[in-house]
Every structure is written in C-alpha cells, then in structure tokens.
C-alpha cells in the first residue's frame, strides 16, 4: 500500500494530459471559427475595431463570471497581468491586420512560426535545426505559390503576430502561476481591451455601437477570446509547454478548414503541401 503524500500516479498524470489536450483542441476550433466570423464584418468595423470589441466584451463577461478580488494584489502581480494583456492585445491586432489581407489558413501558418521557433530554441540540437529548415521550406512554398499572391503587409503582420504568440505562451504560463483560477486572464483581457480601445474609436467610430456589429462582436469574443484563452490557461496547468506547442501546431490545418467551409477560401495544392510541412515541422521539433 503506497504511503500518503506520494506523487500522483501515471494514470492520474495521463488523465490530466488528456484533459489538457482536449481543452487545447476545442479552444483552437472555437478560435478559428471566431476568426472567420470576424472577417465577415471587417468591412464595417475594421480589424482594430473587432479586436477592441472582442477583448472588451470578453473582459466584461469574465468580470461577471470570475468576480476577481483585486485589493491587495502586489505590484508584481499587476505587472504580470499588464504584460500579459498588452502582448495579448498586440498579438490580436497583428493577427487581424494580417487576416484582412491573407487567407485564414495562410495567416495562421505564418503565425505558428512563433511557437515553432520557441520550441526549436528550447531543443538546441541538430534535429531541431532540421525541423526549422523544413518549416522554412513549407513557408517558402506558401509564399512562392504562383496561384497565391501574398500581400507583403499581411505577411509582415502575420510574422509580428508569430513573435507575439511566442511571448504570449511564456506569459500565459507565468500568469497562470501568478494567479488562481481565471483572475489573471480577466485582468489581462481588461488591460488589452483598454489599450486598443482609443485606436478602435478613431478608426471605426460609430460602427462599433451598431447593434448587429455588437452581437457579432459578442460571438467573436466568446469564440475567439473568452473560451479558447480560458481553455489554454487551464490546459497549461495540465500540460507541459512542449506538449501544448505540439497541439498548437494543428492550428493551420484547423484554420484552413474553417476558411474553406465558412469563407470559401481555397488554397492550391502547393500551398496546402507547404502548410502540411509547417505542421509536421512544428510537431516534430517539439517531440524531438
């Protein structure tokens, strides 16, 4: 009979990892459906306006749900939450600006280079370098596909989102350690929404108060922010960062499917092959 206080059993750890994996995959599916929904209202609200609605409405729902107690929080805790929120806002603005110029699947494929680079740096081996080359070849196949002319501004925004996504992973882990429950997510979402709001008012104006736009913004907030970010934060308490990154590698495939089914965006076989190579490289680099 095992003594009390021993470490958790392998079956218990396996169950936690399974739960974490399901949370990540469900969050990714919600996120890509929400992104496709946001694209439909870009002509009216604009990318920055949609980010502001998404973050502020998500923050409002989280405040009502979590009811965080902020009295007594240390300066360090506020700094962690603020850093998380600003990176979250920057990542979403860069992603939506790219999404306004590139297909959903292509945008997410370029964005996944952030977590992939993070994994390769952590690997520090010749095999990691090999996976990095494979990923670059995959991206090159997408960028040089004669059937798909990529907007250079869109590509630059997607790559910026990639860098911020890598920072987001690290800060999500740090925020989950600093706060209990979803308090850190609530505070970070609030900071991010307030940071983007002034630019959204200038760029989008009264369109943000249109009832239809507000309803769509609420749907995007639920699908793209509240649900997936909460799931990711909960998942990172059950999964190591390496396993989390493996699952994130499936994002381009899920995004391409959402873009095709919901937006009618078709990618050539050449681009799909390059996307598959990026997914393979991301999964392989973390497993190695």
Tell me about this structure.
With 288 residues, the chain is an all-alpha fold. Helix content is 80%, strand content 0%. The two termini are 37 Å apart. 49% of the residues are buried. Mean pLDDT is 83; it is low at 1-6.
Topology:
Elements: H1 10-40, H2 42-45, H3 47-66, H4 75-99, H5 104-111, H6 113-123, H7 126-143, H8 152-178, H9 183-204, H10 211-235, H11 241-248, H12 251-263, H13 269-287
In short:
80% of the residues lie in helices and 0% in strands. The protein has helices spanning 10-40, 42-45, 47-66, 75-99, 104-111, 113-123, 126-143, 152-178, 183-204, 211-235, 241-248, 251-263, 269-287.
Task: Name its key features.
globular; mainly alpha; 13 helices; 288 residues; single chain
Strand fraction equals under 5%
Low-pLDDT segments, ≥5 res: 1-6
Integer average pLDDT: 83
Distance between the termini: 37 Å
Overall geometric form: globular
* Amount of helix: over 70%
Q: Measured on Cα atoms, how large is the radius of gyration?
A: 19 Å
- Could you say which structural class the secondary elements and strand pairing correspond to? mainly alpha
With helices defined by DSSP (H or I, 4 residues minimum), what is the helix count?
Answer: 13
Profile the largest sheet. none
Q: In sequence order, what are the helices and strands, one letter per element?
A: HHHHHHHHHHHHH
| Number of separate strands | 0
């Amino acid at each position: 009979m095992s003594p009390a206080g021993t470490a958790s059993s392998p079956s218990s750890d396996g169950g936690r990892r399974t739960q974490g994996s399901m949370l990540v995959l469900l969050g990714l599916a919600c996120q890509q459906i929400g992104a496709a929904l946001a694209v439909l209202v870009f002509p009216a609200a604009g990318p920055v306006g949609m980010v502001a609605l998404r973050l502020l409405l998500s923050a409002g729902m989280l405040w009502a749900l979590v009811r965080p107690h902020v009295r007594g929080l240390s300066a360090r805790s506020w700094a962690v939450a603020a850093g998380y929120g600003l990176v979250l806002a920057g990542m979403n603005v860069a992603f939506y600006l790219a999404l306004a110029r590139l297909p959903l699947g292509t945008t997410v494929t370029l964005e996944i280079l952030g977590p992939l680079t993070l994994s390769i740096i952590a690997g520090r081996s010749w095999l990691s370098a090999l996976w990095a080359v494979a990923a670059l070849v995959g991206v090159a196949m997408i960028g040089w596909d004669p059937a798909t002319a990529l907007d250079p501004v869109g590509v630059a925004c997607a790559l910026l989102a990639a860098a911020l996504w890598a920072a987001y992973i690290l800060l999500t882990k740090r925020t989950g350690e600093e706060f209990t429950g979803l308090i850190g997510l609530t505070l970070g979402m609030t900071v991010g929404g307030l940071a983007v709001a002034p630019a959204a008012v200038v760029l989008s104006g009264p369109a943000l108060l249109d009832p239809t736009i507000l309803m769509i913004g609420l749907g995007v907030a639920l699908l793209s922010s509240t649900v997936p970010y909460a799931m990711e934060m909960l998942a990172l308490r059950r999964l190591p960062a390496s396993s989390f990154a493996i699952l994130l590698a499936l994002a381009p495939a899920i995004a391409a499917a959402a873009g095709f089914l919901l937006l009618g965006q078709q990618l050539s076989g050449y681009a799909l092959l390059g996307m598959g190579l990026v997914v393979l490289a991301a999964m392989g680099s973390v497993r190695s």
